[in-house]
Structures are given as structure tokens and as C-alpha cells.
Amino acid sequence: MKLIVGLGNPSKEYTNTRHNLGFKVLDKLSQKLNVSFKFEKKFKAEIAEKDLGNEKVLLAKPQTFMNNSGDSVLKIVNFYKITNQNLIIVYDDIDLGLGKIRETGKSSAGHKGAESIFNRLGTNQIRRYRVGIKNPNLKKGLADIFVLQKFLPEEKETLKAVIQEASDKILKFLNF
Hints:
5 helices
């Protein structure tokens, strides 16, 4: 079994913000896999399931707010006995330019959702897809405000393309 976790914040006010890019990637992935999300109270997450031949894939969008994502992920990992090798997290990265994706990393680079997961699972040895949201006009010290802003109209095409690319990379990992 594989678990793909997209990070974001619950609540309509955050729906189209930069910090919810992980949710957006999972929404695209769920379309491609033809599955729907359902809230699972015991996991504090929206979950979608897909059987891919002899393997099950779970998509999860924690509903605990970004800084507590690890609480939800730990519940899912423990319940399904998912190994670190079968876990992928997808999240926004303010240090990468919009449209860029990085698949590796040794630290959370200050991302509170990733830190929460690493702390709760006791490891940072987890496959991750960091999707860039950086805007060259961002002023230093405003990162906390910037990540909660909506994408600009002129960023929409790049955003659409990077969501497509990230979901394709995950599908390739899943051999789908």
C-alpha cells in the first residue's frame, strides 16, 4: 500500500492559496485516478482510495491545519502500517520558483507541515515533491503572509502546468 499526502489548510478561506498547493496536486491526482475524497474522522483527513492491480493507493489531505499535519499522517501510517518507502508528501515550497518541482531534500527547509510530519514519524527519510510558489517580487520577512495569498491571474497557466507535472510524476512513481 502507498500513501500520498498533499499538504494544505482546511477551510474555504484557504482553498486557492499558495499554501494549499499540495491539496491542488492531490485533487488533480484524484481526477486522473477517478476517485473521490471522503472525510475520515479517525484520521482527521479527507481520504480517497484506489486499487491499482495488486496494490492499494491512499490519497490523503490532512484537515488538521498545516502545522499539525503530522498528527493526521501518523494516524494513517499506523493504521495501515505504511512504511516510509511507501509514503510521499506533496507541498508548497517558497524557496523554489513557481513552476519548479524538487523531489528530494534533507530537511523541511522551514516548512511547518513537513516539520510536523518528520517530527511525528521520527524521520525525514520520506519521498517528497516540493512544488515551488516563489514570486520574485516577494519581500523578505513576508513569507508567512505570502503563502496564504491567492495566486495572481498571470500565474494561472504556470500553476496549471506544475500541478499537472507533479501529478504525472506521482503517477509514474505508482507505475500507473
